[in-house]
Amino acid sequence: xxxxxxxxxxxxTMKVVDQKGNLLPFLMGSVRIENHGGEVLGGxxxxxxxxxxxxxxxxxxxxxxxxxxxxxxxSFEKHGVIHVIEQASxxxxx
Length: 94
Hints:
Distance between the termini: 18 Å
Shape: elongated
Helix content: under 10%
């Protein structure tokens, strides 16, 4: 994500799959998102629909560096990192 004087957002898409990578569309429940940095828009419990879950993560004011994310479903968990960089001074607003 590119941080400017406002905030930036990234779409986080998650899929629950088996050992062979097949989507598990009949699972129910929600994915719990834990974040260090940033904010999960709409809350940290994301509903699992058709084996997939989607949420948006946004930066907080003056936040740079990394947003660390852990997604948990039951005993399964996956870690990820979103890199936040400063907007280049030569980029202009339109």
